[in-house]
# Entry
Amino acid sequence: MMANLVTSLCCVVLAAVVVAYAQRRIQLVARNQYERMGSDVTMQCGSLDRDASVSWKVNGTDVISPHHLEGPRLILTEVDLGHNGLYSCFQNPHGDRRDTIYLHVGLLPQKPVITCRSNTYPKGFYCNWHLPHPTYIPTAFEVDIQHNQRSLTVQKDPVHKNRCHVRFPEVFSSYPYIVNVTAINALGKISNTYSFEESNIVKPDPPERVTATPIRFNPRRLEVSWQSPATWPDIDSFPLKYFLRYRPLIRDQWQHVELSDSTSHTITDAYAGKEYIIQVAAKDTEIGTWSDWSVAVHATPWIEDPLPITSTTEVDFPTETKTSPIPSSRAPQKGQVPVDRAARVVAVFSPLLLGLMLLLM
Ligand SMILES: *[C@@H]1O[C@H](CO)[C@@H](O)[C@H](O)[C@H]1NC(C)=O
Ligand SMILES: *[C@@H]1O[C@H](CO)[C@@H](O)[C@H](O)[C@H]1NC(C)=O
# Structure
């Protein structure tokens, strides 16, 4: 009987401890509250009654921004990013902490902007998306891509956050692809769709390893060669054509050459001795758009061995020393005025000096 009572007493005490601990945990763990920028925000201190008296702190100091209190509630007007922070409330008169709220001020997402491109035709394509305006709070995206009323498998890019990859389910398809991107955050969600046909998004990467070399004894020629982009998977079945542009460094006007299939070209109309800048772009021979320009390469056509540069500087040097006497010969003329004046001063004072000398004698 006695033992039983002790046991149940123990249980009650234990339960009370557990409950107290759980309550403490609730008070200590901050909960998140997301609010729209510009709105008036109400934060409720735990589940305290309407007539409870509490005081609030943000980031550990008293709340100073415009606000008012209604019992256990803190009301902030027209919140902006400066109101973000960790808010805690304490019940008067003992100052026990009753709640902790992390306030996050943000915006609803706006329609995502979507673009898609295939640089690996006919293997697959990728889509990028971004929000036209930041939301300031975590925002996630859902992507759905439909083709011929079927959802395609979408693979997230391991590096680019807002990018996904898709394999073409078939080649030469006339059905459009429909991309639906939904942006979701704590304040709401919004979708946008983008529709395209296979042939419109094909854009290869720029050609690689572009080189330009002078040709011996040919002062107007440059030999340019390059490789097809490594990302283009099947150059034999899906050949690329190329576009070459070049100009002397000192000119703004580009000259262009379009080349089907070849990965080299000889420029024959270069200005002798002028440094050239050269770039190449690529495009599928039938569909899509031109790639961006390749990294610029510089080259100068072959020129006959010029005279050693050292001899010309040796010639220049003596002429420079010869010219220097001209300014220095002027200098004495300018100096004549003070000299004259000094002479005159001496002339005026010399009788006095003479008198003084006579006196001293
Ligand atoms: C609270 O601290 C955070 C982070 O340090 C800061 O961004 C925020 O502006 C602070 N909030 C207030 C109301 O001072
Ligand atoms: C886009 O996806 C969202 C979320 O799955 C869906 O609610 C919406 O209806 C879709 N929009 C279109 C045009 O299919």
Summary: The chain has three helices and 23 strands.
